[in-house]
Write a structure and sequence with these properties.
Cofactor: [4Fe-4S] cluster
Radius of gyration: 31 Å
Main location: nucleus
Function: DNA polymerase II participates in chromosomal DNA replication.
Family: Belongs to the DNA polymerase type-B family.
Structural class: alpha+beta
Order of helices and strands: EEHHEE
Catalytic activity: DNA(n) + a 2'-deoxyribonucleoside 5'-triphosphate = DNA(n+1) + diphosphate
Distance between the termini: 58 Å
């Protein structure tokens, strides 16, 4: 069951049932798609059965199977962090209350910090 996200009232929680079909090779996939497309077209026009659309048929078979069987391998490699040398500048300035600072009337102080 999935929400119909394309409907204007998709937040109402209306759900649909989906049938997932998996195939061992491209030939079976193509044969099933060829058989289902006219049924889907007829159902859209006449609302006879519940099958009204095909999904994910535009994704190539090998790409979809790669996604389904993708294994993520993590390597636990620890790299020693280099000693950090930090050089930071801190700008401070004076300004009139509730005004933005301007170079004409306000002083600028520059502080350099080494660590």
């Amino acid at each position: 069951m999935k929400n119909k996200l394309y409907l204007p009232n998709h937040l109402a929680g209306i759900k649909r049932t989906f049938i997932r079909l998996r195939f061992h090779d491209i030939d079976h996939l193509m044969k099933a798609r060829k058989e289902l497309q006219p049924i889907v077209k007829r159902n859209i026009e006449q609302q006879i059965d519940g099958i009204i659309e095909l999904r994910e048929f535009d994704i190539p078979y090998h790409s979809r199977e790669t996604l389904h069987f993708l294994n993520i391998i993590r390597y636990d490699v620890r790299v020693e962090q280099p000693e950090l040398i930090i050089l930071a500048f801190d700008f401070e300035c004076t300004k009139m209350r509730l005004k933005f600072p301007t170079h004409a009337s306000d002083q600028i102080k520059l502080r350099q910090k080494n660590q």
